[in-house]
Amino acid sequence: MPRLTSGTDFQLFDTLDSTSLEAKRQVEAGENGPRWIVALTQTGGYGRRGRAWEQRTGDFAGSLFFEPAGPAENLGQVSFIVALALAETLEEFTSAEKIKLKWPNDVLIDGAKCAGILLENLGAHLAIGIGVNMVTAPEGMPYPTTRLMDHSDELPEPAAFAEILDTHFWRIYKEWREQGFEPIRQQWLSSAAGVFEEITVRLPNEELKGVFAGLDETGALELRLAEGKRTIAAGEVFFTAPGKKS
User: Fold this and answer.
1) pLDDT tens-digit map of 122-168
2) Which CATH superfamily is domain 9-190 in?
3) Distance CA 53, CA 41 (A)
């Protein structure tokens, strides 16, 4: 099986239902990873809460699965590691000033969503699903979308993109393992969209409007409300400040 520079296995498929589902199948079959699964075409991709993720040939669809180290309660922090790695990868193809990170798991270019991240716990394994709009900007979404080709003169092939992303990911992952979450938290906040601006956070049973005050030591969002600060572990963020959209 081909391997990337880091030694991570790399599998490229012409077509899959979902790279995340294939990761699950391989883990269930006894594979341990670390392994990238990348599909040129994905027919049943999905994101958070099982929502369909539109992906066409030319877009990047990949999943990395491996056996993570550290306490299970800290594994949600890996999404911030992936976001930083994705941002650094995209910076090789477009201006760094255009790229912002949106809590909890999106990467924006010029304020519009270009990439998404999905973490799934597979028992002793963690699967990280990543979708990047290279040639497709999905329509009809409740937030603006964009594609890399509108911001870059060069579009990488999937294997080349995975190689760059893999390198950045393992370097930042090693930093997290050695130094903890605080350096990651600070790096993420330095590139975050909407910090100290008014946002709306949609929760299962309520919708809150307040000021995005930062992240706590676990990666939860801190929302400043009129009655005080509230910490939110999971939710959907929509930007409500002038000139901003979700």
Assistant:
1) 999 999 999 999 999 988 888 899 999 999 999 999 999 999 999 99
2) Bira Bifunctional Protein; Domain 2 (3.30.930.10)
3) 12
CATH number corresponding to 198-239: 2.30.30.100
**Do residues 10 and 159 touch, judged by C-beta distance below 8 A?**
yes
Cross-strand pairs, 132: 60, 115
Contact assessment for residue 152 and residue 177, using Cβ atoms and an 8 Å cutoff: no
Integer distance in angstroms from the first to the last C-alpha of the chain?
Answer: 41
Handedness of CA 15, 156, 91, 244 (dihedral sign): negative
Q: Is the pTM higher than 0.90?
A: yes
d(CA 148, CA 69): 33
pLDDT, tens digit, 9 for 90 and up, residues 213-230: 999 999 999 999 988 999
